[in-house]
Amino acid sequence: MLRSTLSTDEWLLTESGFDVAKANYFETVFTVGNGLLGTRGSLEEGHLGELSGTYLNGVFDSHDSPVIDLVNAPDWLSVAVRVDGVRLDVQSCTVVSHHRALDMRHGILWRETVFEDDEGRRTRLETLRFASMADRRLVGLRVQITPENHTSEVTVDSAIDGRRRNLERLPVYPEGTTFEPEIRWEKWARTKHLVEVGAASELDAIYLQMRTVDSGIHIGYAATTQASKTAIRQSTDRSFERISRTGTYEVGLGETLRIDKLVTVATSRDIDADSTPLRDSCFDALWARRAEGFDACREASSRVWERRWTDSDCEIIGDADATQAMRFNIYHLLIAANGDDNTVSIGAKSLSGEGYRGHVFWDTEILMMPFFTYTQPETARALLHYRHHTLDGARELSRSNGTRGARYAWESADTGREECPQWTQDGANRFWTREEELHVSADVAYAITTYVAATNDTALLLDFGAEIVFETARFWADRVEPAGERYVLKTVIGPDEFHSHVDNNAFTNRMVEWHLGQANTIWSWLKTEHPDRFAEITDAIALTPTEVSRWHDISEWIVEPVVSPEGIIEQFDGYFERDEIPIAEWDRNDMPRYPAGYNHFNCETTKLLKQPDVVMLMYLLPDEFDAEAKRSNFEYYESRTLHKSSLSPAIHAIMGIEVGDFTRALKYFTRSAFVDLHDNQGNTHEGMHAASTGGTWQTLVCGFGGFRVLNGHMSFTPWLPEQWEEIRFRLQWRGSTVRVAVRHNEIELGLDAASGTTEPIMVCGREYTLSSQRDSVIAYSRAEVGIAI
C-alpha cells in the first residue's frame, strides 16, 4: 500500500471521510509545492464544487481582469478512472471510505478512496503525489486501482488540461445569501488568461503549450505515464486546450493496476528559455526523470526535504497539537519560496490559492522573511533580490506621484507597479492603501539590514541592497514636508489600516527616521570600505553628498509623536480625540467582533484598530523602547484591536510575552498557529494566510524562545507555558548554526561552527559566550530584566 511510504503520525495532517462542504478547505491545506509551483489538494478526478488550481510563481497576467492575477495554470494532475465505463468520482459513485494524509516531512500527499458504483462493484483508488524539491520542474503522481469484488475493464485517462480560468468578481447578492458547495463557484465570473499555442505527442508522452494573453509568457507541460501491465488499448486524445493519454486494462479481482505519471514544467521566464525551445526543455527533462523512475524522483525530493527540516523544524515537547501546527506552518513557508529564482517572492496566499490575486505585500519582509533569514538564508537572499528585480517599477511608481527615488507598491506582482485595486469587489468602498500605505518601502530596507546583520552577507549590499536603501531613502526625502524646524509626513495610512488620510503616523515616521539613518550608515561604510563600488553605485543613480546630508537632517528633525502622561504613544495626529468604542463581543475563537454598526470601512472616527501599529513598531525596533513603554502601550492598544488580519495575533502574542501578559499571549499564539488548520477565519478555502505562517514561527522563536538581536548580538529572554516541557529550534547566525532548547528555568545552546568559533550572546540581560567546543546550559529568570513572571 502507498500509505506505507509516509512518515510517522506526528508528521501527518489527515482527512477522514469526504465532505463536499469542507473540500475547498482541504484543497488549500493539502497543497503540494516547491516554490516554483503550488498545486492545490484537489481530487485527481475532480468533483462538482472543486476549487482546483496550479500556480506558477511569477506567472502573472492582466487580460480582462481589473488588476493583474497570478494565473491559474494548466492542470497537470488530471486523471480520470472508469470501471466498465463508470467514472470513479464522488458524484457518480458512493464513497465507501475516504482517507488522505499530507506528509509534511517529505512533501507528499496520499489518498485512498473506496468507490461503489450502481452495480455494486467496489474499487479502491490510491494515489501519491509530490512536487519535487530536487528538480523544481518536476511533479509526480502515482495511481493504484484495485477491484475489490470484481474483474473489470479499467480505463485511465491522464491529461494536461489548459482550460483553466481565474475567479473574478462575485456578483452582489443580498447579505446572508449562501449557495450549495457544488455550485458555489459557478456563481462567480471568470477571467481567461491562457490561450493554446500547440500540443503534441511523442512516444508515450504528451505535451501542451499555452501562452498568457497579455503578458505573453509561454508555459509548457510534458507528461508521461507508465503502467504496471500492458494495456489492451491505448490512444492519445486531442481537444481544444487539452491533450490526454488513455489506456484500457483488464484488471482482475484483487489485482492492483499502477500508473505512474511524471510531468515536467517550463516557462519562457526560465533562465535558459532563450537558448532551448520550450518543448525541447520539457521533453529533455522528462526523459531524464523517466529514466530514473518515479520512486527515485520521489526519494530525491524527500532527501532535500530532510535537509530543509534539519534547519527549520520546531518542536514543542509536551504539546503534540502545537508541534503539528508549527510544522504545518513551516511546511507552507517552505513550499512557497523559490530560492533558485531571484525574480519572485511570496504572495499573501502563497501558491495555495487565488486570494489577493497572488500579490506581494509587506507581509513578506516583516512576517515571512525572518523565518528564511534565520533558517534558509540563501532563500532569504533570493526573496530580497525580488525587490531589486522590481526596483524599476518602484521608481516608476514614485515618479508618477511626483517624487524621486523608488516607492514600493502596496501590492506588487511581476514588475513592481502598483497592483492594488481601487475598489472593493462590489464597488461600494474605496481602497486608499495603494496611495497612502507607504511604510512598505521602509519595511523592505528593514528586511535588508536585518538579513545582513544575521548573515554578515555584506556582499548583498554591494550587489543590490545599498541601491535599494538609497533609492527608497530618496523617496522619503521628497515625500516629507517641512513644518517650521521639523518635517512632517501627511496623508498616510499606518499598519492599522482602519484610518486613512492621517498625518504623522507614529509607525511610519519612526521607520522613516530609522530608514534614513541606516541609509547614512551604509553610505559611510560603502565610501570607506568599498570605494570603487561606492563610485559605481552613486554614479549610476547620480546620488550626491548633499542629498545624503539632507537624509541626516530629516532623520534628526522628523516630527515625533505625542506621548501621553501615561506613556502612551499617539498612533497619529489626533488619534486620542477619536471616538472610544468599546469591544463588547467575542466570537467562538475568543476573538473580538466588530461593535454593532461598525465594519472595516467605517471605523475612521474611532480608536478601533484592525491590527498592531504602535505595538508593531515596538516589536520591530526593540532597542528603542524600555520595558515600561512596551507594557503600557501594549495594554492600551491591545484592548482596542479587533485583529481583522491574520498577522495581528502573532505580533500580540510575541509582545504579550515580552511584557508579561502570558494569558493573552498564549491565546494569540493559538489563534495564529491554528488559523488555517482550524479555518478560524472561515476563508482558508481562498488560500493559506501566509503572513500568519511566518508570524507563527516568530511567535515560537521570538516569543516563547525570546530571541532578539539587540545591539548586534543574539539575545534570549524566554518563557514557556506551564503545560510545555521544552521547545527546540535552530537558527542560522553568521555562517554558524545555533541549536536552542528552552526549558522552564534553563536554556541550552549549542554552536555548530568551525573549531574555536565563539559567539557572544545575552540571556535575560546577562552576557555569555558560546563556544563551538561545548554546549552551554544557562539558568534564567525573566525577573532579572524586570519582566513579570
From TrEMBL:
<feature type="domain" description="Glycoside hydrolase family 65 N-terminal">
    <location>
        <begin position="14"/>
        <end position="269"/>
    </location>
</feature>
<dbReference type="InterPro" id="IPR037018">
    <property type="entry name" value="GH65_N"/>
</dbReference>
<dbReference type="InterPro" id="IPR008928">
    <property type="entry name" value="6-hairpin_glycosidase_sf"/>
</dbReference>
<dbReference type="GO" id="GO:0005975">
    <property type="term" value="P:carbohydrate metabolic process"/>
</dbReference>
<keyword id="KW-0328">Glycosyltransferase</keyword>
<dbReference type="InterPro" id="IPR005196">
    <property type="entry name" value="Glyco_hydro_65_N"/>
</dbReference>
<dbReference type="InterPro" id="IPR017045">
    <property type="entry name" value="Malt_Pase/Glycosyl_Hdrlase"/>
</dbReference>
<dbReference type="Pfam" id="PF03632">
    <property type="entry name" value="Glyco_hydro_65m"/>
</dbReference>
<dbReference type="InterPro" id="IPR012341">
    <property type="entry name" value="6hp_glycosidase-like_sf"/>
</dbReference>
<keyword id="KW-0378">Hydrolase</keyword>
<keyword id="KW-0808">Transferase</keyword>
<feature type="binding site">
    <location>
        <begin position="362"/>
        <end position="363"/>
    </location>
    <ligand>
        <name>substrate</name>
    </ligand>
</feature>
<dbReference type="Pfam" id="PF03633">
    <property type="entry name" value="Glyco_hydro_65C"/>
</dbReference>
<dbReference type="InterPro" id="IPR005194">
    <property type="entry name" value="Glyco_hydro_65_C"/>
</dbReference>
<dbReference type="InterPro" id="IPR005195">
    <property type="entry name" value="Glyco_hydro_65_M"/>
</dbReference>
<keyword id="KW-0326">Glycosidase</keyword>
<protein>
    <submittedName>
        <fullName>Glycoside hydrolase family 65 protein</fullName>
    </submittedName>
</protein>
<comment type="similarity">
    <text>Belongs to the glycosyl hydrolase 65 family.</text>
</comment>
<feature type="binding site">
    <location>
        <begin position="610"/>
        <end position="611"/>
    </location>
    <ligand>
        <name>substrate</name>
    </ligand>
</feature>
<dbReference type="GO" id="GO:0030246">
    <property type="term" value="F:carbohydrate binding"/>
</dbReference>
<feature type="domain" description="Glycoside hydrolase family 65 C-terminal">
    <location>
        <begin position="707"/>
        <end position="770"/>
    </location>
</feature>
<dbReference type="InterPro" id="IPR011013">
    <property type="entry name" value="Gal_mutarotase_sf_dom"/>
</dbReference>
<dbReference type="GO" id="GO:0004553">
    <property type="term" value="F:hydrolase activity, hydrolyzing O-glycosyl compounds"/>
</dbReference>
<feature type="domain" description="Glycoside hydrolase family 65 central catalytic">
    <location>
        <begin position="327"/>
        <end position="698"/>
    </location>
</feature>
<feature type="active site" description="Proton donor">
    <location>
        <position position="497"/>
    </location>
</feature>
<dbReference type="Pfam" id="PF03636">
    <property type="entry name" value="Glyco_hydro_65N"/>
</dbReference>
<dbReference type="GO" id="GO:0016757">
    <property type="term" value="F:glycosyltransferase activity"/>
</dbReference>
